[in-house]
User: Which sequence fits this backbone?
């Protein structure tokens, strides 16, 4: 094989590799899966959205029913207002719950909709009132450590106040 043919094949493989990396980046960024049709828009307010991003999926029963359109901070209520685009094929009751979940331990965050039982359905421009914030792993760890430190401190205080020989009863 001469030098020109070898250079041509190397160039083709490099181009295929770059295209594959581009496709992977688009897939990871949720920019390729927009198979939803016409949508209606609703909003939901959260105290903490964690690392939820625009274009994140909205799921119900594990099925993607929409995408997050926008996230803004409301400086009057100090909440994050999330705008949701939901596929018109799916009608949700007005008492639907909107929860922020994480796919896996450290995966992407998405909004999960849990339908309520009301007869009236959400319409374009409505607001979902029942929301649950994202669970922030760092906050949970700090609360756990704080609680453990409080327990240890309380046991030490009880042990210091107990008469001599009562240590065995305290530790039980």
Assistant:
């Amino acid at each position: 094989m001469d030098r020109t043919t070898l250079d041509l094949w190397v160039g083709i493989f490099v181009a295929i590799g770059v295209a594959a990396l581009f496709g992977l980046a688009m897939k990871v960024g949720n920019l390729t899966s927009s198979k939803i049709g016409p949508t209606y828009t609703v909003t939901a307010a959260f105290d903490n959205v964690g690392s939820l991003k625009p274009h994140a999926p909205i799921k119900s029963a594990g099925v993607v029913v929409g995408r997050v359109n926008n996230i803004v901070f409301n400086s009057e209520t100090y909440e994050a207002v999330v705008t949701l685009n939901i596929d018109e094929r799916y009608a949700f009751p007005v008492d639907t719950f909107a929860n922020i979940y994480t796919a896996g331990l450290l995966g992407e965050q998405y909004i999960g909709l849990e339908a309520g039982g009301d007869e009236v359905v959400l319409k374009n421009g409505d607001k979902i009132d029942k929301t649950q914030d994202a669970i922030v792993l760092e906050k949970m760890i700090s609360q756990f450590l704080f609680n453990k430190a409080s327990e240890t401190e309380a046991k030490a205080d009880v042990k210091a106040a107990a008469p001599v020989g009562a240590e065995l009863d305290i530790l039980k």
